[in-house]
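Title: Comparing notes on inverse folding

I've been comparing how different people in this forum approach sequence design from structure. To keep things fair, I'm posting one structure and asking everyone to reply with a full sequence. Here's the target:
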């Protein structure tokens, strides 16, 4: 194969990725072979790894050339199982134009800045409660006691789900994301059953909402959603519900976990935030840039097309590596590999420069919500969780797609 790159890294090996995002390997690709043909392995067929931002933007902004639907935008729970695939194809993240645009409008209506901002007082109360519980103990298991809590709370609030049921949501999300992790023991059957259970919950909540409608809620926007003059079908409504849960919970949890880990590993950066909490929103942006919650999203070329200096053939799979493009020195400067909570001061447009939320037609619909959750959580944590330390190495999720943390014990000065 003439276009093959001499630098081959086992990027789709979930075990290897669970040792940490291979930033060095990605840097080599970015510098030597930015559109890199990677060999088939036991985990994947051949694919192109995109590691520079300009190439990622080209792919992501051209959905007619690069389909999200052909092989879907990311690996699916249930794998090749045709029934699961049929469900997953209904998620907007796996749709192409022109249909995608119409469906996106429905979810967009549910996530207005106003609707999200209205949640802030509730988020802050909840963040305070989370910190109140751990602060006197001087230690906690950060993932379950802190990071998982806020996104679950928010998703319950958005979907009018009783907060007491959040634990079940959390288990269902673990099934959706844990397909490569032997500890999670996910099979095509359990993946399918988790999706079916989420659909059942969605229908139940919809029935309750119809009996007692709350205007302006996300559920309300979805239930009143119209595509080409028609209300959403039950299946479409349930699919939207599924992506809000699957897309909204693990991502924010992962960002919170890595944010805390990064601050612990860089005490001098943490101190800057203690001294000046007004820096926290900028620090959240740097956390998002430095360690994205997804390793990649993928597309399939709809025709022969040139990316950078490479000829990609129709049907080829292209994977866009967010952790790499976010450290592209041509965009972020010579210190792109450094974690700096004050980066926003040197790069005021940091928010629009990194690609943690993607770019183009599929740009994350929950970005404002995620930023708000993270900012509120760190604003409540940082002044009270003083001198935090890692108690042993965090345990990572086994996944080539989500560089998540399953368990992270920390200690700090008890209040
Ligand atoms: C740190 C947190 C988050 C990260 C890193 C993240 C990342 C992303 C990325 C990279 C995409 C683009 C996918 C592509 O181009 O193929 C995306 C799409 C999406 N995200 Fe997020 N996301 C986060 C939080 C959320 C939240 C909280 C929600 C909602 C509750 C959400 C809902 C969605 C939806 C609905 C899409 C599909 C948009 C479309 O296909 O048009 N995300 N997200």
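Reply #1:
Here's my take.
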């Amino acid at each position: 194969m003439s276009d093959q790159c001499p630098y081959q890294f086992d990027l789709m090996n979930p075990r290897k990725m669970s040792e940490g995002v291979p930033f060095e390997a990605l840097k080599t690709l970015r510098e030597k072979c930015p559109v890199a043909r990677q060999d088939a392995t036991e985990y994947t067929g051949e694919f192109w790894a995109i590691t520079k931002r300009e190439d990622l933007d080209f792919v992501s902004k051209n959905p007619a050339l690069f389909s999200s639907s052909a092989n879907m935008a990311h690996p699916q729970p249930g794998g090749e199982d045709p029934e699961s695939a049929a469900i997953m194809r209904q998620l907007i993240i796996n749709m192409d134009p022109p249909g995608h645009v119409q469906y996106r409008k429905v979810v967009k209506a549910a996530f207005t800045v106003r609707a999200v901002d209205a949640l802030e007082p509730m988020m802050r109360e909840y963040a305070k409660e989370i910190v109140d519980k751990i602060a006197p103990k001087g230690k906690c298991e950060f993932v379950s006691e802190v990071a998982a809590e806020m996104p679950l709370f928010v998703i319950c609030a958005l979907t009018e789900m009783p907060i007491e049921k959040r634990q079940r949501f959390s288990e269902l999300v673990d099934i959706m994301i844990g397909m490569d992790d032997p500890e999670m023991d996910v099979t095509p059957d359990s993946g399918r059953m988790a999706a079916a259970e989420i659909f059942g919950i969605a229908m139940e909540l919809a029935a309750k909402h119809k009996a007692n409608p709350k205007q302006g809620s996300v559920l309300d926007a979805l239930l009143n959603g119209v595509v080409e003059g028609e209300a959403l079908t039950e299946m479409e409504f349930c699919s939207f519900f599924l992506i809000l849960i699957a897309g909204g919970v693990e991502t924010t949890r992962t960002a919170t976990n890595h944010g805390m880990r990064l601050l612990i590993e860089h005490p001098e950066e943490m101190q800057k935030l203690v001294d000046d909490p007004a820096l926290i929103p900028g620090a959240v942006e740097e956390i998002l840039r430095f360690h994205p919650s997804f390793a990649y999203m993928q597309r399939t070329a709809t025709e022969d097309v040139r990316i950078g200096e490479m000829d990609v053939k129709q049907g080829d799979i292209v994977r866009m590596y967010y952790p790499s493009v976010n450290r592209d020195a041509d965009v972020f400067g010579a210190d792109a590999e450094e974690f700096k909570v004050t980066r926003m001061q040197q790069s005021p447009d940091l928010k629009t420069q990194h690609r943690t939320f993607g770019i183009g037609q599929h740009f994350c619909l929950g970005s404002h919500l995620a930023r708000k959750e993270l900012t509120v959580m760190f604003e409540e944590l940082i002044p009270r969780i003083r001198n935090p330390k890692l108690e042993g190495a965090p345990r990572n999720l086994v996944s080539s797609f989500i560089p998540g943390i399953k368990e992270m014990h920390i200690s700090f000065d008890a209040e």
